[in-house]
Structure formats: C-alpha cells, structure tokens
Design brief:
Length: 590
C-alpha cells in the first residue's frame, strides 16, 4: 500500500488499492522503445527467473528497478488515491501495460488450464479500478493526458471507453506511431515464444509484481515544485527533447490558471508537430521561427528551449497563448518553404522563387524567408516587394554558392534582415546595401569568373546543378516552348568524366593539363539529357554524341551546332557564352 514515506515497494503493493497514477502534462508520452524493452526482459530473465524453479524462489530474487517519485493529489473521492508521477513514468507504464498483456494471454488459455482463470482474476484486480459512472477512463490505474489514454485502455479492455473525452483522444490516436501500440505488438510476439505456458506466464507475473522493487519517493503538494524536480531528474533516463521541454514550459502558466490547455495542446501544438514538413521536423521549425529578429540563428537541440525560457521569464498565460498561436499560424508558411511543390503559396510568383531557393539548399536563409512570408500574410509587406526580396535572396545564394564562397555570416545576416530594411523607402536597395556592408556582395565580374572557372557539376548538390542548367536552357529556348524538365533529370558531360582510349588520343596535349578535370565539370561541358539518353551517350566520341543528342533541350541543340574539336578551349568559350545568360538570369535589381 503506497504511503507518505520513502521506502521500498513492489508493483503488487502500488497497484493493489483503488488508485490512479496520473502522468502530468509536463511529462512526455510513453517513449520507451525496443532497446529498453529488450533490457527489461533480459534483466528479468538473468536477475530473477534464471535458476528459480519455484514461485517462492522467484519472489526471493529481488531486483531494484529504480525510483518512482510521486506527488499526492487531493481527491473528492475517498475510495480513490491519486498520485502525480514526477519520475518513473516509463517504468510504471511499462509494467502496467505488460501485466495487462500477460492477462490477455492468460485469458486465451482458460480452457486449457484451471489456474489461468484464477490468475486472470488476480490481475484484473491489480489492473482495473472498481469504478462506475459515465467515464470508463476512471478504471485505469495509469492515466496519461498526451495521447496514451486510448491505446492504454484498448490494450487492457480491448474496446473503446465510454468517455466525454473519447472524441478528442481518437483524433490524437495513431496506432502506427503510438508507442503503447508498438509495445503491445512487441509483447504479443515475445510472450508466446519466451513464456508459452500458464506456469511460465505466472512466473513472469510474480517477477513483475513481487521481485521488481522500486524506491517509493512521495512529495508533498504545495511544498515541492513537481516540474522543477522533474526537469532535474530527467537526464538520467531518456532526456526530454527541446520540443518537449518547450511544451512543458509554455503550457505551465495555462495549467496553473486552469485554462483549457488540452484543447490548445491537441488542436494547435500536436497538430503542428504532426504536420511540420522537412526532415528535421518540428524542433527545426521552432528554431527557425524563434530566430526571426534575433542577432543570430538559435543553436540546435536544447538551445532552442534555453533561448525561449531565458527570453520569457516570467512567462504569462497571455504570452503562452500568443506563442502557441504564432507557432500554429506560421507553420503553413514554413511548410511552403520546405515543400513548395506540395503546399504552394497563394502567390504563384512567390511560390516560383521559393522552389528555386529550396533548390539551393541554403537553409540558413529560412529565418528571413519565413519572416517575409509572415509579414506578407499579415498585410505588412506588399506581395510585389516580397517577390523582389525573394529574388534578391536567390541571386545572393546562387552567386555565392556557384563560387563556393563562405556562408558563415548567413547565421547573422538573415535573422534580423527584414527588420533592418522593411521601413526603408526601397527595401530591395536597403537589402543590397546591407549585403555589401557585410562583405557578401558578389559583383558581375566575380560571378563571371566563377561561371567560367568553377565546377557547376557537384555530385553532392545535383539539385543546384540541374536548376542552373534548366534556367539557362529556358533562356536559350527561342520560341518559348520548353521541354518537360522532369524527363531531363540527368546531367550529361560532353567530355566524359572517365576518359577512354579514344578520348585520350582526341584530346592530345589537353590530356596532360592539370585543369582538365575542373573544366570538364564547368557549365561549358554540361547539358541536360534523359537518364536513358545519358547512358547511351556514355563515352562516345564527340561527333557520335552530337548525332545522338535530341533537339528537345536548347543546351543539346547548342552543342549540336558547334562544329569544333571539343577541348578545354571550346569548353571555356561555351562557358563564357552561357555566362551572358546567367548574368541576365541572376542580375541584381537596379
């Protein structure tokens, strides 16, 4: 029976009474994974069950399972004890679920064993509260508020509960991603293999209920700060992510003031987590969003949480709601930045620039891009100016990336850039002046030298290479009838990357030029082909390639029209010709 004193207890003792262990809002959901589950079963086997032939021997093989820190809660129901779990949530939830799954397995064997039904009754009393009323969730002895209630109830009772909050829980529930369901699937595979009989299952139950020992540490309500204690204990186990810590901090004033925080959490916070685009997910979005207006892009990981907490002390409930609303309302713009093909901005001109910026993979500018979209959506920035600013950003990114120039200042240039220029009579000119001041301006002469002398083909950055070639191809198209560039996804080297015997003879003295590999990857030696056509062309001689190239792409038509010997000098000449097009495409606005 749980007490108000620190002491060693078994899970049988803590689950025996009518009791509810509430997982507080500042805790994460159930997060243990296969690594922790495997370790639990290994410990039980090696530390408790091995060489224990009887149930008494199992019971005597005590094994320390860690502390459970709880805070007693006031309750109007004298028949029910309530505790908030401050530390030990993952342990207590795992054992509770495992007992329920063993009970389900025993129920399958009641017709084969007289003992099975008795064991099921014992477990029912330990797992289920004696409760009546219109909310079946009261039957749960471990009660979460972050999407785990419904799968926990279904694991134990195999049906949906009758509850006024069922609809909200159904919206949160995804059986494919919920860890309670993952654990259920894991256990349902493991039990029949490792504990096939009723005696085996009951030995496991005895180990869980009597042999696993926890240190029961009760706190006093009104004297101890549960969230502060939780954060100080957290790093021992599976550390909370920055997003989880932020959630706890942002929602705390709403919880303290008894606001309707669960609706905000479910409909805005969790919805934002589920719908954030990009491989780095919700935390990266928060990092970009919170960096707007700052001197420097906020660092990754917990630095996002540290920044927000230090910048909002104390955090009022109004500020908390404002932050939640900002996160929710800004997310569509962020998703457009991350995936402009899927989400699309309402302005086709803005969307066109976002696609091109996305192809540069220069993510350090996203704070600035998000600020532009936010201001445009709020009506604080005209769409025409927004488009011009995005174009100038693209020009900066392309010119510097083409020359493989330093990007270290991007983290300090972009976060506060819009604030610096939005009030100026000409924001585009103000942006250019600031770039020059920071020493990041690339002149036409510098850009020309990069185009002629720098490799455009980079295996690590083919999106950028293809974008540049497509833009030049469009500019060369005489009648405006453009090919389907999705079918021209392969970058062709006219002079092959790997030189065979024919090309060695053909190149003559150029073969010994140490700059040959570099010039072969410059724009003058490149064009666009379909993948089959590229494979077919391979290392063919220059004249054979010309004959095989189609007229679909303007770049290949240009090659077909060059009746020359293809060597370094011709590659440089073609680079200089294409350079005039690139200087027009990526010209600074004047």
């Amino acid at each position: 029976m749980p007490t108000d004193n620190v002491g060693n207890l078994s899970f049988e003792q803590i689950f025996k009474p009518n009791i509810r262990f509430e997982i507080p809002f500042f805790q994460r959901g159930y997060a243990w994974e296969k690594k922790q589950w495997d370790q639990l079963f290994t410990d039980i086997k090696e530390q408790i069950l091995e060489d224990a032939d009887t149930l008494l021997a199992v019971e005597n093989n005590e094994h320390f399972f860690g502390p459970i820190v709880v805070l007693g809660k006031e309750n109007t129901d004298p028949t029910l004890q309530r505790f908030m779990v401050i530390d030990g949530q993952q342990r207590i939830t795992t054992i509770y679920l495992l007992l329920a799954l063993i009970k389900n397995e025993l129920e399958k064997k009641v017709h084969d064993s007289h003992e099975a039904s008795g064991y099921v009754n014992i477990l029912n009393n330990l797992i289920e509260n004696d409760s009546s009323g219109d909310d079946d969730y009261k039957k749960l002895k471990v009660f979460s508020s972050k999407g785990d209630r419904l799968p926990t109830f279904k694991t134990i009772f195999e049906i949906n509960p009758r509850s006024p909050i069922l609809t909200a829980d159904v919206e949160l529930y995804n059986p494919e991603t919920n860890n309670v369901d993952r654990f259920r699937r894991y256990v349902e595979k493991r039990l029949p293999k490792d504990f096939p009989s009723v005696p085996d299952l009951w030995k496991l139950c005895t180990a869980l209920l009597k042999s696993l020992k926890i240190v029961w540490i009760p706190l006093k309500e009104g004297k101890d700060d549960p969230q502060a204690i939780f954060e100080s204990l957290n790093d021992r186990g599976m550390p909370l992510s920055a997003a989880e810590l932020l959630c706890n901090y942002i929602f705390k004033p709403l919880i303290d003031e008894n606001e309707n925080f669960e609706d905000l959490h479910n409909n805005k916070w969790l919805k934002s987590i589920r719908t954030t685009e990009g491989e780095h997910g919700f935390e990266e979005y928060l990092r970009i969003l919170f960096s707007i207006g700052q001197k420097k892009v906020i660092g990754k990981g917990r630095k996002v949480y540290t920044y927000y907490k230090n910048s909002h002390k104390p955090l009022s409930s109004n500020m908390a709601r404002t932050t939640i609303d900002d996160i929710s309302s800004s997310l569509p713009s962020y998703n457009v930045i991350m995936n402009p093909f899927k989400h699309k901005n309402k302005s086709p001109q803005i969307n066109e620039q976002l696609i091109k910026i996305n192809n540069t993979r220069m993510e350090a500018c996203y704070t600035y891009i998000l600020a532009i979209l936010k201001y445009n959506n709020l009506g604080k920035l005209d769409t025409t100016i927004a488009v011009d600013l995005l174009k100038e950003t693209l020009i900066l990114l392309v010119r510097r990336k083409y020359g493989e120039m330093s990007t270290t200042k991007y983290d300090t240039i972009f976060p506060n850039l819009l604030n610096r220029i939005i009030s100026e009579p000409n924001p585009v000119l103000a942006m250019q002046d600031f770039i020059k001041k920071e020493g990041y301006w690339i002149s036409d002469q510098e850009f020309r030298e990069h185009i002629v002398n720098r490799p455009l083909y980079r295996e690590r950055d083919l999106l950028f290479t293809r974008m540049i070639l497509q833009e030049v191809d469009k500019s060369l198209s005489t009648y405006g009838q453009l090919p389907d560039y999705t079918t021209l996804g392969s970058v062709e080297h006219v002079l092959p990357q790997t030189i065979d015997e024919h090309w060695k003879v053909y190149l003559g003295n150029d073969l010994n030029n140490t700059d040959l590999p570099r010039f072969s990857n410059t724009i003058g030696n490149l064009c666009l082909l379909s993948t089959p056509a590229n494979s077919h062309a391979g290392r063919d001689p220059f004249e054979s390639k010309k004959a095989d190239y189609s007229d679909v792409s303007a770049l290949t038509k240009d090659i077909k029209g060059r009746n020359v010997k293809w060597d370094i000098s011709q590659i440089k000449l073609r680079s200089e010709f294409l350079c005039t097009k690139l200087l027009e495409i990526y010209a600074w606005k004047v």
